[in-house]
Design brief:
about 400 residues; alpha+beta; 6-stranded antiparallel beta sheet; two-stranded antiparallel sheet; 12 helices; elongated
Length: about 400
């Protein structure tokens, strides 16, 4: 019975109570009561979770995302005023990473060559932003790359498997253009050097001190250049989106895979348990893939839909229909909606899943509940790998 049936029934009831005023008023009261119930249902839905509630939305699905400093407004004004504003964003990222002014100059030269110091939402292939970084190459989601502070941080410190300037051994000893090319890997490496004079002038207009000291690997309190003595030198920072701990190994008893997640499997399971049930926040509505990436310490998954992540994982890691995953594995379901659903297997038949009991929250439930409650179709499991995460 829907709302129209309820109203129709109420109207019919009034037709048979015209004989008595008392009954007439009773019928009117009944209509008011029923309409009130309908309005309550419209404005205060029951909150029952459904399979549709697991449809991830947003970049990186979203990205459990964490654009570093928030998207913020884009620069406005004349072209020069915009360039000055973006130059300041770049310098702030360099100072935050404790890199010297020379790093800022290299980044300015790079951005001028790549985008004329404009935050472009287009470029070659899927290149976008100040530095024309590519989402498909692991630099982040489109939203993130279009955030100037995030893009600049990526240029300096790297992102995912991409090296940043601070990762380049001896970058402070080679020419400015060559240092830019080490990060950008451009088809035209000779073009960066030509922007040095103009970028020194832009830096002056922006009040940027290009003679500022710092560490070539970032994070050091030293003033002036510090020689790089190893692959990581004196590096006191790590790539954004990666932690200091690497994920170790993962095995199903037959095969063993090396993981590169910021959290180990044991750390991830512990985190999932501590941040579920009473410990869960309400931030995970339709963000099941973002949640699984966060469990393993990533800022974003790099994939738009949970169901697609299964195909992003190498074929050799896909376990179609296998219902015996090791603890820590990622499990996948087809919910009949575009996004599908993903959850982290904790062992003993339990998964940590968003939306299954309460929309937006994480709860630990029997894995089979996703099928019995939602009617979802189980697809299989993969090791906890995130090829496009960062």
């Amino acid at each position: 019975m829907d709302e129209r049936d309820l109203v129709r029934g109420a109207l019919q009831a009034t037709a048979v109570v015209k004989k008595g005023v008392q009954l007439k008023y009773g019928a009117i009261a009944l209509i008011v009561f029923i309409v009130g119930l309908i309005l309550l249902g419209m404005f205060f839905p029951a909150g029952q979770a459904s399979a549709a509630g697991c449809e991830d939305t947003g970049p990186g699905t979203t990205d459990a995302s964490a654009v570093s400093d928030g998207a913020g407004p884009q620069a406005t004004g004349t072209l020069h005023e915009q360039q000055v504003a973006y130059a300041k964003d770049i310098d702030e990222a360099a100072k935050k990473a404790k890199l010297p002014g020379r790093a800022t100059l290299i980044a300015l030269m790079t951005a001028m060559q790549e985008s004329t110091m404009q935050n472009l939402d287009y470029g070659h292939a899927d290149s976008i932003g100040l530095f024309q970084q590519r989402p498909s190459m692991g630099w982040g989601t489109k939203q993130q790359i279009m955030t100037p502070s995030y893009a600049a941080e990526s240029f300096f410190l790297g992102r995912g498997s991409n090296d940043g300037l601070a990762d380049i051994r001896g970058w402070d000893k080679i020419s400015l253009g060559d240092a830019a090319q080490k990060v950008q890997k451009s088809a035209h490496p000779e073009l960066y050097a030509g922007h040095e004079t103009a970028m020194r002038k832009l830096a002056k207009d922006a009040g940027i001190n290009l003679e500022r000291g710092g560490s070539p690997t970032g994070g050091s309190s030293s003033t002036g250049s510090t020689p790089v003595t190893s692959e990581n030198g004196n590096c006191a920072v790590t790539k954004p989106g990666t932690g200091g701990t690497h994920g170790g190994k993962f095995t199903d008893g037959t095969q063993t895979w090396k993981l590169d997640n910021p959290r180990t499997v044991e750390e991830a399971i512990t985190w999932a348990k501590e941040n579920s049930g009473p410990g869960s926040t309400a931030n995970w509505y339709r963000r099941c893939l973002a949640y699984t990436a966060t469990v393993y310490g990533w800022n974003f998954s790099g994939v738009n839909y949970a169901i697609d992540h299964y195909s992003v994982v190498p074929k050799s890691m896909q376990h179609d229909g296998d219902r015996h995953p090791p603890a820590g594995a990622l499990m996948y379901w087809d919910t009949g909606h575009r996004a599908g659903h993903i959850a982290v297997y904790l062992g003993d038949g339990k998964v940590a899943s968003s939306d299954i009991l309460r929309p937006g929250y994480i709860d630990i439930v029997d894995a089979e509940l996703l099928e019995t409650k939602w009617g979802a179709r189980y697809i299989g499991w993969t090791p906890p790998v995130f090829p496009r995460a960062g």
